[in-house]
Amino acid sequence: MSILSLIKLIKTGVNMKIIELLKKENIKYKEVEYSREATIFNVNNKLNLVVIYGNNNNFMMERELFYYLNTHKLHYAICLVNKIEKRLFLLTFKIKHNWLLSSFSGTDKERLHLGKIVLNNPINEINLVNFLLTYN
Hints:
Elements: H1 3-11, H2 16-24, E1 29-33, E2 38-43, E3 47-54, E4 60-62, H3 63-70, E5 75-82, E6 87-93, H4 99-105, E7 111-113, H5 116-119, E8 122-123, H6 125-133
Parallel strand pairs: 3-5
Antiparallel strand pairs: 1-2, 2-3, 4-7, 5-6, 6-8
Helix pairs in contact: 1-2
């Protein structure tokens, strides 16, 4: 089963499949149930990986989720899953003062459209695993 298939199962509440993948790759993790729309995986106490789903390339980031991530000391990354086209995108944030912080600071909106930056950051399943292994 591909990583994309495993990640898609998270949306339906079947988190065991991605956990099996993380175990298979010997990636240390802790699952943090955040909301119905997002699951956070703490990878080896070095990275918070957020998985967010969309039916197209139109992804939204909740202010509350952003502040949750930005107030923790860990780096964070956002894996965006386009369920219709079966495409993955990965946004990484190694510093706390980034474009996402500036975007939320400049508005009172509770949700931000992530926009074209998503399309500029596609990733395949193999590179996603390799990225996660760098934090293991």
